Amino acid sequence: MQGEYNNFGVHFRYPEDWSIVDEEVSEWPRRVSVQSPHSGFWELQAYPSRFLPDDLTQRTLEAFCEEYDDVESEAVSELIMDHPATGFDLDFFCMDLLVSCQVRSFTLAGQTLLLICQAESQEFETRQEVFEAITRSLFLDID
Q1: How would you classify the pairing of strands 19-24 and 111-120?
Q2: Considering the entire predicted model, what is its pTM?
């Protein structure tokens, strides 16, 4: 069995042992987060279409750099299910743990979406395919 989320114009699936830990649907940005049984989480934020993906990812990078010391970042452009996405891959320390994070933004269903996938680095490696599967499920009803 898997969990499904359907609200504010987005629909996705997530593993049954993950749980929704945060949701805001009445104000912008709208957002939802699902968390693994450990440290990993997948968060989606939805903005009106007038927001540009590059601006959102840059602001997100700046916020991470303000919050954490010595954030290592690499700019990334990729296709997610044939949709162009831009963002950053980040690594930083939090409470003596190395944390890996992917920040991506793209447009979908008349909204600009910001996606953040984050976990302690070893968990991130083992959860990478799960993060990707959740993200791909966003596009199933669109394509």
Answers
A1: unpaired
A2: 0.93
